[in-house]
């Protein structure tokens, strides 16, 4: 029973309570049959051996009939419960099999007999499941917020880089014009001065700022990739959160629909 989920554990407890109540009904019916036989047949102070044997046979037959009817009813109800489980499993694409050897395991039968049938434990597990689900949602929201933050920084840096590249291209074109003029002046100066060299420096193009921005974009891209890589576990977390949410919903539904006859915490 340890590997059974909380939702299925609640269903098992409900199943046990229901059929234990049927067991009590069967015992009450047998007791009523004995009382009827005692009141109807035992009226004299002395009986012969034949009369005693006849009364015992009559009581035995009554008990057999009652037991046969009640046990047969329990068997039929168990079959209907199994049919529901198999039908739902087939709808989910699962194939179930029964191991009848386990239902005769004395140790397992004793464990079932000792099971406590109160709902307090189930409610506690439901609350813990809810807390885990809420924490998972918070972690997921924080991860998505961090991802959006880094994505925004990345997009902003890309826009800055594009703008700076456009400015750099414009400055480069102007620099080429100036450089052409200076080359003409340099050529004229060389002719005038007999080939004397002149050191001419072009205008600043902003390459240093562009390089720094490219480095920043590369760094942000690396961080963004790291964040996206971290988001892969959160895809699994989303699936787990969906499964936990379904379990929590099922638990709530079972608790809301719990039958009043089975609310008592004491073992039947």
Automatic annotation (TrEMBL):
One of its GO terms (biological process) is negative regulation of protein localization to cilium. GO terms for cellular component: cytoplasm. InterPro entries: LZTFL1. The keyword tRNA processing does not apply. Residues 129-140, 178-196 have a biased composition (Basic and acidic residues). It comes from the Eukaryota. It is found in: Cytoplasm. Pfam families: Leu_zip (PF15294). Keywords: Coiled coil, Cytoplasm. Residues 119-140, 161-208 are annotated as: Disordered. Its main location: cytoplasm. Belongs to the LZTFL1 family. Self-associates. Interacts with BBS9; the interaction mediates the association of LZTL1 with the BBsome complex and regulates BBSome ciliary trafficking. Regulates ciliary localization of the BBSome complex. Together with the BBSome complex, controls SMO ciliary trafficking and contributes to the sonic hedgehog (SHH) pathway regulation. May play a role in neurite outgrowth. May have tumor suppressor function. This is Leucine zipper transcription factor-like protein 1. The lineage of its organism: Eukaryota, Sar, Stramenopiles, Ochrophyta, Bolidophyceae.
């Amino acid at each position: 029973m340890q590997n059974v989920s909380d939702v299925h554990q609640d269903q098992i407890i409900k199943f046990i309570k229901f059929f234990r109540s049927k067991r009590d009904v069967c015992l009450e019916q047998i007791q009523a049959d004995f009382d009827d036989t005692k009141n109807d047949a035992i009226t004299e102070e002395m009986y012969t051996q034949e009369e005693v044997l006849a009364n015992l046979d009559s009581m035995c037959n009554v008990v057999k009939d009652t037991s046969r009817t009640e046990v047969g009813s329990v068997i039929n109800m168990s079959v209907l419960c199994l049919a529901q489980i198999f039908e739902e499993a087939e709808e989910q694409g699962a194939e179930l099999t029964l191991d009848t050897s386990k239902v005769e395991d004395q140790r397992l039968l004793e464990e079932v007999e000792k099971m406590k049938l109160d709902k307090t434990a189930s409610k506690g597990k439901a609350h813990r499941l809810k807390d885990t689900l809420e924490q998972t949602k918070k972690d997921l929201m924080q991860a998505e917020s961090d991802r959006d933050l880094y994505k925004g920084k990345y997009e902003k840096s890309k826009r800055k880089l594009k703008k700076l590249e456009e400015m750099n291209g414009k400055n480069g074109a102007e620099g080429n014009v100036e450089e052409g003029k200076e080359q003409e002046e340099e050529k004229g100066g060389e002719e005038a001065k007999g080939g004397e060299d002149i050191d001419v420096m072009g205008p600043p193009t902003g390459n240093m700022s562009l390089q720094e921005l490219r480095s920043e974009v590369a760094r942000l891209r690396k961080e963004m990739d790291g964040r996206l890589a971290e988001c892969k576990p959160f895809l699994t977390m989303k699936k787990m959160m969906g499964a936990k949410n379904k379990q929590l919903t099922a638990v709530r539904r079972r608790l809301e629909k719990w039958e009043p006859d089975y609310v008592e915490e004491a073992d039947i």
